[in-house]
Amino acid sequence: MNIHTGHRVAAPPRYALRLKLSTAVMLGAGLIGAASVWAQEAAPEPKPEDHVVMVTGSRISSRGYNQPTPTTTLTSDDIEKNAQPNIFTTIAQLPALQGSSGSSVLTYSTSSGMQGLSALSLRGLGAFRTLTLIDGQRVVPANVTGVTDVSQFPQLLVKRVDVVTGGASASYGSDAIGGVVNFITDKKFTGFKANVEHGQTTYADDKNNTLQLAWGRGFLDDRLHVVVSGEYSKEDGVPAHGFGNDPGPNGRTAFNAPAFQIRPLSQTTDGKPQMYDIRNAQPYQYNRYGLITSGPLQGTAFGNGGVPYKFNYGSNGVPDGKGGVSGCISPFCVGGDLSGTSGNSTSLASALKRENFYTRLSYALTPNHELFMTVNVAEVNSQNTPNAGAPKNANLTIQCDNPFLPASIQSACAANNITSFQYGTGNANFPNNISVEPRRRQERYVIGADGSFDAAGTSWSYNSYYQRGVNHTDLFVKNITLSPRYTAAIDAIRLPDGSIVCRSVIARNSGCQPLNIIGNVTQSTGALAYVMPSQGPQQHTRQTQDVASFNISGEPMALWAGPLAIAAGLEYRKEAYSVRADPYGNGVTPDSPNSAAYPADPLLNVTSGSNWFAGNYHNGQGSYSVREGYLEANLPLFKTTALGEANLNVAGRGTSYSTAGNAKTWKLGGTWKTTIDGLRLRAVTSRDVRAPNLSELFAPVVITNNTVNHNGTTLTVQQQVVGNTALRPEVARSTELGVVLTQPSWAPGFSASFDYYQIKVGDVISTLGLQQEVDLCDAGRQDMCAAMLLNSPVPTNNYVRLQQFNLASLKLKGFDIETSYRGSLASLGLPGMFTVRALATHTIDNITDPGVPGTIPIQSAGVNLGATPRWKVLATQAWTTDRINVTLTERWVSNGVYSNEYIECKSGCPVATAIHPTIDNNQMKGATYFDLGATYKVSGHITAYAKVDNLTNRDSSTAPGPNVGYGLNPSLYDVLGRMYRAGVRFTF
């Protein structure tokens, strides 16, 4: 990895023309892997005669300008040697990148729309607070949260990636609170190159194939230059394992059904922990094929053919006939019959297929003025299983006259004088798992001009562009039930003629077919078609982004210590979206698509929808526009032999949002190249913003009934979940202080940097619970009162709108370290160069204050169930010759805890509280992963490579908790195991 601590050679933005193209990309297979070498020779100091450079962390173009904002650069060599089918994975390994998504993240989700989306997150602040650009230009988001999908980028032509680890809103606008990731493409690529790669895990899954092609050529004495690339990549993912613990998918053993057993607070006066960290957790509210969960028959399970048997609860548990189990803590026992455990029924990694076509055409009107256009057409498809079957946690009622019940159970009902019982099942005999299949299609067109001119005795450069981006996202969910139909179908009776039908005459007349969920039996084809229509939940989202931008930079005057450099620009942007969902999820409205495909059904809620087991999408739309202008200046302070060289960098931006009003951002920083050999100091402080995104502003309304306590009275209200157009921008204050040592004469080849950062974000947009909003209104918060009606003369008109508000705050603090050494091995009588490099991020604080009465600030630093460990380190050691490169890489995540708010104790525990629970174990081990790769230059045109990631096949640390999925945390850990890759690159 090549970190340029003083200056970034970054190309100015480029721009393109709206043009309809179709993509035709071929699949290629090859050999697996690649060598990962992050260490590159440090960039030399620029000479006065060097070309003007543009800094990604700044808009200034100036000779020799050293920017104050730390920026890490990955070159094309870095990217190639890491040998990933998606460039996203390479970038996400950087220590400052925390909380990024990817193919292994959110695989347990049905409705989020984020599955398979490759979105980058800096500092654990979330992808929506990290601005991701191509050639300094914005990219149409792939989700209504405003995040971009790196999988849709043209990756073979990426010349370098600049990662700005500091606020950059004054230079680039909204969303840059965490920083900026800027992909710089090779706009003048000439020749032909290709990459063919294959890979798979040691478990023979997640097989992946990648084919990338690029061609470039100049015409008309190179005044016209054309670049074209096509890419195809397919990752099979790791599919759901199904029910039970052992073995895991394809023989993996990491999963052991982790969970927290949680006692009621009222029971914690006995000196024992409230929470227990357990393995082999057995839910006692359901099993694989059906379990009676309450009453005199509690503990009766059903197996093959519906045969009843006594369920083994584990923990020596004995059912109490009231829904509880002695020796167990709701809802888990430990051990026992684990065949119904569904925790590992989530895809370990989503399948992912990406196709990308990209072209750029440029024409030089004169040597100093160029017109250009770019077109990027991409499609990314993914697939995941959020869970097997459709578990029902003791929330079903089975009538004793149900003809699917064995005669022995019907007799037992009569003997115990009951007519029904509570029941739970994992529905493991459904023939297919739930399948979530997002498809994202991007069309991005840019047209623009850039160049330079002389005015008032000095040289100026400019760039301007217009971009039109359209992203279509289709979500398809298959093999999922309609809840009202499921409830009707499992309630069966036998008619006098002996036929079995649904009990409800209304349901029967609308096509209900009885469904047998008593044991492992073959389901009726008609019943499955009734409860699980082939056309499941669907959603189509069309998201557009229009951007017009003009930027100019130059050096208007010479001062005592060098030229004054300035940059200025204007930008207009409009974001819009519309989403249309299926009628069963949305409810039937005049604009419901495909309503004819969803026949009317009296059992379903045709007004508010939400009929599916999961995946209840709703219609919505919205848009906003942004107008802004900025000015940035670099002022040289002094340049003397006695003091060294220093400059001051300032920037200001004024922004007007059509929904959120006006916002101002600024930056103040400086660098000082001291007289100490190789030593430079830098500092920057900035005010940054993130405007509310389309989802936060315009989320469609979803209505359910609920109850609240209002001034001591329990009220039934409509719970309306909806966006909030009154949201204000989040406002951040970032400060960074750094020390840089670059190849001093006393240690040639050695470089190091240390940067301390502190980020404070106010007016953070967050969501409250129903009762929390009412409590805040009762406490006098008028903005909350405006979101509800609680005193209507018609009680059914009472409502509470669950909206996001500007309530919370964030505080982050930590530091980044980088060291590297590069030297020749000639003194040892060996050929080539040896490079050692290490990058580390230490998070001191990551504190969220919800801003709600009764809550406390939450410290997330070191919580390894989340995304911000105390330490994240990436280190490499590389040996390079003219033909061979061998690299060993270490990726390390430090030990952590489940929560910094937990009190760990095994006996003599204090009384637990909602804010500070007690727990018997609050430790979560970190991990170290080793990657080994090599490249061999077969000829001047062909390079072969191979790589093994996670060389020791280190398992992920167990991660109990509801929001990690699979009992593992892919945000921090490698959950796939050892991965082999090999391939060949061609260059002509």
TrEMBL record:
Keywords: Cell outer membrane, Membrane, Receptor, TonB box, Transmembrane, Transmembrane beta strand, Transport. Residues 66-180 form the TonB-dependent receptor plug domain. The keyword Iron does not apply. It is found in: Cell outer membrane. The keyword Membrane applies. InterPro entries: Beta-barrel_TonB, Beta-barrel_TonB_sf, Plug_dom, Plug_dom_sf, TonB-dep_rcpt-like. Its main location: membrane. Gene3D superfamilies: TonB-dependent receptor, beta-barrel domain, TonB-dependent receptor, plug domain. Residues 418-951 form the TonB-dependent receptor-like beta-barrel domain. It is a multi-pass membrane protein. PANTHER family: PTHR47234, SECRETIN_TONB SHORT N-TERMINAL DOMAIN-CONTAINING PROTEIN. Belongs to the TonB-dependent receptor family. This is TonB-dependent receptor. It comes from Duganella lactea.
